[in-house]
Amino acid sequence: MKIGELAQLSGLSASRIRFYEAQGLIRQVERASNGYRRYSEQALQTLQIIQCAQQAGFSLEELKQLLPDTLTGAFKHDELLAGLNRKIGQIEEMQRHLAHSKAQLLGWIDTIQARPEGMACEENAERVMASFKH
């Protein structure tokens, strides 16, 4: 398939596809005699893997390590599993950090909303700021 069709099927722009190709992430590319790129069905699958992995937080460098070997086209089983497990660990750490941040923000909201009746906003702000120091 030509790049326009691949772009339409993948939802990516042609320039993004060419970028991934230049980065060595898409390897299933042939050139027609007129110089046009011809992509295999596997290229579409690779793009779908790239999109999914990027949404999960994988960098392009990490993806290069996880995609099939350039020469054999085979996945590196142990490296793939290790990379996926490493990313899960990173996501879990991020979740812990986000949960902690959320709890802090909710605490601040509670402190702000617990303004004693009749207290001026500026005075409440000072009270709230003083509570952060402890």
Structure description:
- The protein is mostly helical.
- The chain has two domains: 1-75, Multidrug-efflux Transporter Regulator, Chain: A, Domain 2, CATH 1.10.1660; 76-134.
- It is built from six helices and two strands, in the order ααββαααα.
- The protein has a two-stranded antiparallel sheet.
- The longest helix has 37 residues, at 77-113.
- The mean pLDDT is 88.
What's the CATH C level of the largest domain? Mainly Alpha
Query: Uncertain spans, ≥5 residues at pLDDT below 50?
Result: none
Strand order of the largest sheet: 1-2
In the CATH hierarchy, the third-tier topology of the largest domain is known as Multidrug-efflux Transporter Regulator, Chain: A, Domain 2
Report the average pLDDT across residues. 88
The helix-strand sequence is HHEEHHHH
Total number of distinct structural domains = 2
CATH architecture of the largest domain: Orthogonal Bundle
Helix amount, in percent? Answer: 55-70%
Shape field: elongated
Layout of helices and strands:
Elements: H1 3-10, H2 14-22, E1 29-31, E2 37-39, H3 41-55, H4 60-66, H5 77-113, H6 121-132
Antiparallel strand pairs: 1-2
